[in-house]
Amino acid sequence: MLSKLDGLQELLRHQTVDEVVIALPIKSHYDAITTIIRVCEEQGIIVRLLSDLFDLSFAKSLPGSLEDVPVFTFYSSPFDHPDLMVKRVIDIALSSLLLVVFSLYYC
């Protein structure tokens, strides 16, 4: 920590800072986080925020955007896992083969 909140603007004016990482609990420090983000935004500084919005047991989050609005996607199943891709290819190949076999059998 290089500065307290009340000295942040002064610090950013006199020091070269590329990024600010906020590791405060969002629920209890919302106003302080908003102030930090606004000060950094004015200086063109990247802000990274550790997200602890929800107490998730095993779900993972994936940052993204929806029409230029930042969003987090929460999921508990594998997301684009290579094993799922292999399963998908096998399902399609087997289904296609069975369709051909049954169409020849019933024709």
What does this structure look like?
The protein is an alpha+beta fold and 107 residues long. It has 2 domains: 1-76, no CATH class; 78-107. It is 43% helix and 21% strand. It is built from 3 helices and 4 strands, in the order αβαβββα. The protein has helices spanning 8-14, 30-43, 82-106, and strands spanning 19-22, 46-49, 60-66, 69-75. A two-stranded parallel ribbon has the order 1-2. Strand 3 (60-66) and strand 4 form a beta hairpin. Helix 1 (8-14) runs parallel beside helix 2 (30-43). The longest helix is centred in the C-terminal third of the chain and has 25 residues, at 82-106. The protein is elongated and about 80 Å long. The N and C termini lie far apart (76 Å). The mean pLDDT is 84.
Short recap of the structure:
This protein is of the alpha+beta class and 107 residues long. Helix content is 43%, strand content 21%.
